[in-house]
């Protein structure tokens, strides 16, 4: 049992300490930004007592997704690059649709 914990401790050290550099820190910051979109969406939904997707969700998606794409490119991870790259189009399109909707509302007023 002690040997198993020693191997686990060594693995945790190798993964989280030994590899720690500016890119890993960027990756963690990017993931935190990307994850904040769910917190924003959850809080907005709880306040409204219904499912809501606020504009901040799309901005956190765009910012976090862009940082994660940079991280994935640096790490040369094709799966991560494809996933984050495709997501950016969706986030930009949603922000574009929201901006167009706001323009249409202001023209009516």
Structural class per helix/strand content? Answer: mainly alpha
Q: Find the count of extended strands (DSSP E, 2+ residues).
A: 0
Number of domains: 1
Question: Mind describing the biggest β-sheet?
Answer: none
Overall pLDDT, averaged?
Answer: 91
> How far apart are the termini?
71 Å
Order of helices and strands: HHHH
Stretches where pLDDT falls below 50 for ≥5 residues? Answer: none
Instruction: Please give the share of residues in helix.
Output: over 70%
Shape, per Cα inertia axes = elongated
How much of the sequence is in beta strands?
under 5%
Radius of gyration: 19 Å
With helices defined by DSSP (H or I, 4 residues minimum), what is the helix count?
Answer: 4
Walk me through this protein's architecture:
The structure is a single chain. This protein is mostly helical. It has one domain (21-108). Helices cover 88% and strands 0% of the residues. It has four helices and no strands. Helix 2 runs antiparallel to helix 3 (55-75). The radius of gyration is 19 Å and the shape is elongated. The mean pLDDT is 91. It holds the Pfam family LAB_N. This is Lipid A biosynthesis N-terminal domain-containing protein. Keywords: Membrane, Transmembrane, Transmembrane helix. The chain crosses the membrane at residues 20-40, 52-73, 79-99.
